[in-house]
């Protein structure tokens, strides 16, 4: 199989590299010359565990190539994946100018039948626009090559993208011909060894599946954040409630962890886009509107607790902040709750000393020198009035609390991810605040 992947961002790079890993001949294409030059030397634009080694291995074997020349790279390709960005426009809808620009360029240069697949998250109806762009360019050339369009949404989680690609829960593909179905089956056959299905469907349903999946997951999170906030008011503990409801198989125990709001490149963008698509078509997504506003509020929950603890006056206080990225194992700062918390603390005249295992450079691009960047997690604690847990990196889970307490000015922890145990924190002499957890431990079990 000869594959072209257009766009070497997160999705394109992972897709191209994993397809090369199973033996396909892949060219990843991007207009950014610097990015392509770097990739040829094994320098990646993003951090993703395991990806760098995989890029190097497949480049060395000659199965994975990088190029800025789309025209040349798509010659004789069986499949072209479009994996360029779809940034949200001001009104929340996905901007398709890059996707359709690539479709046109493919139309201007294709030399045989191929399946043109949208991999970027695109609104329902985009495949029709891609088809029209291709037809337009082909007819301008006076050519009539046969082609198919298809939709193949990705469900990759940052930090676990390779694992997700190699062992997917499912692969969803929207097609409109048996020929395209046959080719796409061949592309994905090597990834179905774990027994999970490839689900073929019509194109609009495939396009909708991606938005529905992300919106459902975002809904679970906002729902649990709402429950957590109510638990605090009612004297319940959300960790108990989470276990209590998660053991019902119909609810499930995944993705029901309260925190300080979802971030990243997918959930915020996709929830907004689905609300907008619905509105454009005369339908109001009431649940998703609430999901979004609960999430916005949740980003302030930790700050509100801090303000309350210090009696409203935060001027001159120093805060150690552990974790900057929107979630662990990534350097992605897009829509990260840390940005909201930092902005609020700075506005109150506080000093912030932050540490993140991989996102410091990325954070520096965005926040600049308005905060201090510590060399390690302990350095961030020196003279801090409180410690804030913002991202649940594994290395933050079990620090030496004796050392932590000694380095800080005051032993106070605001844990935005509920990674510590209330009782253990209390025993170690810390004032501990979680999200929806009881401030003090009350055993409900009588020990004889
Ligand atoms: C998500 C989807 O999981 C993936 O299938 C899709 O392709 C892209 O969007 P990603 O953005 O990488 O992936 O992150 P994910 O691990 O899903 O977490 C998203 C956000 O939800 C994070 O901010 C995380 O902290 C938050 N979250 C997740 C919670 O607050 N609670 C949970 O229980 C789970």
UniProtKB/TrEMBL annotation:
Pathways per UniProt: Nucleotide-sugar biosynthesis; UDP-alpha-D-glucuronate biosynthesis; UDP-alpha-D-glucuronate from UDP-alpha-D-glucose: step 1/1
Superkingdom to which the source organism belongs: Bacteria
Entry GO MF terms: oxidoreductase activity
EC number(s) on file: 1.1.1.22
Signal peptide, first to last residue: none
Pfam families reported for this sequence: UDPG_MGDP_dh, UDPG_MGDP_dh_C, UDPG_MGDP_dh_N
Alphabetical list of SUPFAM superfamilies matching this protein: 6-phosphogluconate dehydrogenase C-terminal domain-like (SSF48179), NAD(P)-binding Rossmann-fold domains (SSF51735), UDP-glucose/GDP-mannose dehydrogenase C-terminal domain (SSF52413)
Catalytic reaction annotation: UDP-alpha-D-glucose + 2 NAD(+) + H2O = UDP-alpha-D-glucuronate + 2 NADH + 3 H(+)
Keyword terms: NAD, Oxidoreductase
Record-linked InterPro entries: 6-PGluconate_DH-like_C_sf (IPR008927), NAD(P)-bd_dom_sf (IPR036291), UDP-Glc/GDP-Man (IPR017476), UDP-Glc/GDP-Man_DH_C (IPR014027), UDP-Glc/GDP-Man_DH_C_sf (IPR036220), UDP-Glc/GDP-Man_DH_dimer (IPR014026), UDP-Glc/GDP-Man_DH_N (IPR001732), UDPglc_DH_bac (IPR028357)
Domain UDP-glucose/GDP-mannose dehydrogenase C-terminal: from-to ranges: 320-422
Family per similarity comment: Belongs to the UDP-glucose/GDP-mannose dehydrogenase family.
NCBIfam families the UniProt entry points to: NDP-sugDHase
Protein name in the entry: UDP-glucose 6-dehydrogenase
Organism of this sequence: Adhaeribacter terreus
């Amino acid at each position: 199989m000869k594959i072209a992947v257009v766009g070497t961002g997160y999705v394109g790079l992972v897709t191209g590299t994993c397809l090369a890993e199973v033996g396909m001949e892949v060219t990843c294409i991007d207009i950014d010359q610097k990015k392509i030059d770097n990739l040829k030397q094994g320098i990646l634009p993003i951090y993703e565990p395991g990806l760098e080694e995989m890029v190097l291995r497949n480049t060395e074997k000659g199965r994975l190539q990088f190029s800025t020349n789309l025209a040349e790279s798509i010659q004789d390709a069986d499949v072209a994946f479009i994996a360029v960005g779809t940034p949200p426009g001001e009104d929340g809808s996905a901007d398709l100018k890059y996707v359709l620009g690539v479709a046109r360029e493919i139309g201007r240069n294709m030399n045989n039948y191929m399946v043109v697949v949208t991999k970027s998250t695109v609104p329902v109806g985009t495949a029709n626009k891609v088809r029209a762009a291709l037809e337009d360019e082909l007819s301008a050339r006076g050519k009539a090559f046969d082609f198919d369009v298809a939709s193949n949404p990705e469900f990759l989680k940052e930090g676990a993208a390779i694992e997700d690609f190699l062992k997917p829960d499912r692969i969803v593909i929207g097609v409109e011909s048996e020929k395209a179905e046959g080719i796409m089956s061949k592309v994905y056959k090597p990834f179905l060894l774990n027994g999970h299905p490839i689900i073929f469907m019509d194109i609009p349903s495939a396009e909708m599946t991606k938005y529905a999946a992300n919106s459902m997951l975002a809904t679970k999170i906002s729902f649990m954040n709402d429950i957590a906030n109510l638990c605090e008011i009612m004297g319940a503990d959300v960790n108990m409630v989470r276990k209590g409801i998660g053991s019902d198989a119909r609810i499930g125990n995944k993705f029901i962890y309260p925190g300080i709001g979802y971030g990243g490149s997918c959930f915020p963008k996709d929830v907004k886009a689905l609300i907008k698509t619905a509105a454009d078509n005369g339908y109001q997504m009431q649940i998703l509107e609430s999901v979004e506003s609960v999430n916005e509020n949740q980003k302030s929950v930790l700050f509100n607790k801090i303000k309350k603890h210090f009696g409203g006056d935060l001027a001159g206080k120093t805060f150690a902040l552990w974790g900057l990225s929107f979630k662990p194992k990534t350097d992605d700062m897009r829509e990260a709750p840390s940005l909201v918390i930092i902005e609020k603390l700075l506005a109150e005249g506080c000093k912030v000393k932050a540490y993140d295992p991989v996102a410091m450079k990325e954070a520096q691009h965005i926040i600049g020198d308005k905060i201090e960047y510590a060399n390690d997690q302990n350095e961030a604690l020196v003279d801090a009035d409180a410690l804030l847990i913002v991202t649940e990196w594994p290395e933050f889970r079990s620090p030496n609390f004796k050392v932590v307490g000694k380095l800080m000015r005051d032993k106070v922890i605001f844990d935005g991810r509920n990674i510590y145990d209330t009782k253990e924190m209390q025993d170690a002499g810390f004032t501990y605040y979680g999200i929806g957890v009881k401030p003090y431990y009350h055993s409900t079990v009588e020990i004889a």
